[in-house]
Amino acid sequence: xxxxxxxxxxxxxxxxxxxxxxxxxxxxxxxxxxxxxxxxxxxxxxxxxxxxxxxxxxxxxxxxxxxxxxxxxxxxxxxxxxxxxxxxxxxxxxxxxxxxxxxxxxxxxxxxxxxxxxxxxxxxxxxxxxxxxxxxxxxxxxxxxxxxxxxxxxxxxxxxxxxxxxxxxxxxxxxxxxxxxxxxxxxxxxxxxxxxxxx
Length: 199
What we know:
About 60% of the residues lie in helices and about 0% in strands. The protein is mostly helical. It has a domain at about 60-95.
């Protein structure tokens, strides 16, 4: 039988002997049972090496943290850095405004500055202030620009540098390109006029 005892009609001696043998076998395997009860499962990879699950869990956690950090950074960049700064500035302004008292008096500097910065229609001093601001902006250093005769056209509409001496040193490709485009346009226009001539 599967339990190790004989099947069928068995005498008492044989049955006693089999039971003693089974008990002895169980006692011999008792220490193996105790050892296996408290032992941990050994996990192996495809090549047969032992896997360190704690280390793998730690690595996965670090990867997940790095990925979430990267996703957060991309989300921040996707919204726009300047827009984020503007939103933060708006929040700070709103908090500053909430901390002020509800009633504003004549000596409130923020209110005074805000009212002065507003432009009103029909203000006689508005033109003077605009001129003064334009003059202040003009005094700021600007990049020098080319001021000579009109430069030859190029396909990117790039203005020459301010040090350009006015001499065209190109191989003529730009002029040929513009000539081809103009020729093609003229032929198309002529073909169109010819096709609708008798209508």
